[in-house]
């Protein structure tokens, strides 16, 4: 005979509590998928709730608007990770060239090769129509990322490994290959005929080599 502790009714409160605690992450995962698939404007909160398996009213208990839902997605998938990445830059013991290589590979493994990279395409296509959303993304993602890249480049200059360059403009040179990969992954990279044409890690290796050939200090001519 089953005991009270093993009966289905006894397990229900605990299961409900676990379900309630997991709802925000389930809603954010559903929202990320839909934002990437359909864009911000075309995504309806009803669709997010349906994909997460809850009612629209339940969604609004956690996120009072679609704008707040978008901000939460950005913070969870991108903005919330800069402390981790900053600590890695601080503790890195190799050369600045190795740090740049590590950083670009790490971006692909943690962001570029995930659904989160689709946010890049979303922002490039819809920022003009949603200036407040664009300003939020600029403050939470773009500016911290640029600061991180500039720290890597400044590290190389300070150690005599990189030539002195305009750090602000050089940051765009480092960023461009990553934006290309994000756009590629969520457009032609999904097509069976083109998905195998480009190896992302080999592409990044080539881009790092090109960057370093331009950044490295060269001996003065005799």
UniProtKB/TrEMBL annotation:
Residues 1-12 have a biased composition (Low complexity). Residues 1-23 are annotated as: Disordered. The keyword Membrane does not apply. Pfam families: TetR_C_11 (PF16859), TetR_N (PF00440). Residues 44-63 bind DNA. Residues 21-81 form the HTH tetR-type domain. Keywords: DNA-binding, Transcription, Transcription regulation. InterPro entries: Homeodomain-like_sf, HTH-type_TetR-like_transc_reg, HTH_TetR, Tet_transcr_reg_TetR-rel_C_sf, TetR_C. The keyword NAD does not apply. Gene3D superfamilies: Homeodomain-like, Tetracycline Repressor, domain 2. SUPFAM superfamilies: Homeodomain-like, Tetracyclin repressor-like, C-terminal domain. This is TetR/AcrR family transcriptional regulator.
